[in-house]
Design brief:
Layout: E1 2-7, H1 15-29, E2 33-38, H2 52-55, H3 68-74, E3 79-87, E4 90-91, H4 93-100, E5 119-126, H5 135-146, E6 151-159, H6 166-177
Parallel strand pairs: 1-2, 1-3, 3-5, 5-6
Antiparallel strand pairs: 3-4
Bound molecules: flavin mononucleotide.
C-alpha cells in the first residue's frame, strides 16, 4: 500500500510527530511504501478558491507550492497518516491550511477524486491533561477527510505535559503495522 505521512508539528521532540513516526515505522516494517512530508519545512499557501479543481475535471490543486508533489501522490494513495499539535483549541494553523487544500478532491457532484477505500488516521497532542477535552475538535478535523470518502482508522491523543507514553507509542506502531 502507498501511505502518505504528514508531520504537523514544527519542533524537535514533538509528541504528535513521535506517535506518527512510530506508525510510519510499523507501516514500513509491514512492507508498505511510506512517503513523508513535514509541513513546517514546506512552503504552503492557503486555498485561493480559484475553483480550477472544480472546473477542470479530475484536476487536483493547481497552486504551485510544496504541496504539489503531495497532491501528485494523493490520488493513488491508500492511507493518510497525519499529526497535529493543538494550538488555541484546534489543530495548528499550518495543518488547517493543509486540510483546506483538500477541497480540490471534491467534484461538483460531491463525489471524491481520490481512490475509493482510502483510510486516514490522526495523531494529536495537547497541553490539557484530559484526553477527551478536544476529542470532538479532532473528530471534526478528521471528518473533512471522511467527507472525501475516506474511512477513519483511529484518532490517538497525547494529553498533558509529560512525555508521550510508551503505551501510546506502541498503539501508534501497531496502527501502522496493521494497516
Ligand atoms: C500557540 C500554542 C497554543 C496552544 N494552545 C493550546 C490549547 O488551546 N489547548 C491545549 O491543550 N494545549 C495548547 N497548547 C499546548 C500544545 O498543544 C502542547 O504543548 C502539545 O503537546 C504540543 O504538541 P507537539 O509537542 O506535538 O508539538 C498550545 C501550544 C502552543 C505553542
Amino acid at each position: 500500500m502507498k501511505v502518505l505521512a504528514v508531520y504537523g508539528s514544527g519542533h524537535q521532540g514533538s509528541s504528535c510527530n513521535a506517535m506518527l513516526a512510530q506508525a510510519v515505522k510499523g507501516a514500513r516494517d509491514a512492507g508498505h511504501t511510506v512517503l513523508e512530508y513535514s509541513i513546517y519545512d514546506m512552503n504552503i499557501k492557503g486555498c485561493t478558491g480559484c475553483r480550477a479543481c472544480k472546473e477542470g475535471g479530475e484536476q487536483v490543486c493547481v497552486v504551485k507550492d510544496d504541496l504539489k508533489p503531495y497532491f501528485e501522490e494523493l490520488c493513488s494513495a491508500d492511507v493518510i497518516l497525519l499529526s497535529a499539535p493543538n494550538h488555541t483549541g484546534q489543530p495548528c494553523g499550518p495543518m488547517i491550511t493543509y486540510l483546506n487544500r483538500h477541497y480540490c478532491l471534491l467534484r461538483t457532484d460531491w463525489t471524491a477524486k481520490n481512490k475509493a477505500g482510502m483510510r486516514v488516521a490522526g495523531f494529536f497532542s495537547q497541553g490539557a491533561p484530559d484526553p477527551e477535552a478536544y476529542r470532538a475538535v479532532y473528530q471534526s478535523y478528521m471528518a473533512d477527510f471522511q467527507r472525501r470518502g475516506m474511512t477513519l482508522i483511529d484518532i490517538l491523543i497525547h494529553a498533558g505535559r509529560e512525555a508521550v507514553s510508551q503505551e501510546l507509542l506502541d498503539r501508534a506502531y501497531r496502527l501502522g503495522q496493521e494497516l
